Amino acid sequence: VPLQELSQVIVVAKVSGMEGNDRNDLHLNLQDDMLMKELSELKKQQDMKITLVLNTCGPIETAPYEAFTDAIFVTFLPGMEGGRALADLMVGKQSPSGKLPITFPKRYEDTPTYLNFPGDGYEVNYGEGIYVGYRYYDKKKIEPAYPFGYGLSYTSFEYSNYH
User: Fold this and answer.
1) Which residue, of 27, 128, 131, 141, is most buried by count of CB atoms within 10 Å of its CB?
2) Which residues face 14 on adjacent strands?
């Protein structure tokens, strides 16, 4: 089906990675990024809902996609039953109440390792000590795109002083 005929699009974007290997940047792979740019332009011309599913090994820079996506789900590497779990979340059968176990920076330059990476040859000095993740952002007073523990739900609630 041509993209122009769709009213709802779900893009499952990936970033390859594994333990023991560092990524060079915080971008989606080139094909997914090009598709998202095409959808962004198409959405300007027609009524379309776009959902971005991040099947990634870690954070990405989300700013380029936030302005035109209607929802972003982060599944990381969900495994064999991840598709079923994601479907349950997307149709409202389950509440997407999970919280991020990592921090998503606004940009790569905001990360704790920015000044140390990529290192020299096969040597990288991880000199940030205990200031990794949310500790770094708190200490440097840098506002991330999505902080450690961020997550939304399909419900709303409030606390009050009822006895």
Assistant:
1) 128
2) 55
CA atoms within 13 A of residue 31's CA, in its CB half-sphere: 6
Contact 64, 121 (CB under 8 A): no
CA dihedral of residues 45, 46, 51, 57 (deg, nearest 10): -20
Distance CA 20, CA 3 (A): 38
- Per-residue DSSP letters for 74-106? E-SS--TTHHHHHHHHHTTSS------SS-B-S
pTM of the model: 0.84
Share of residues in the chain with pLDDT > 70 (%): 98
The answer on pLDDT for 122 being more than 80 is no
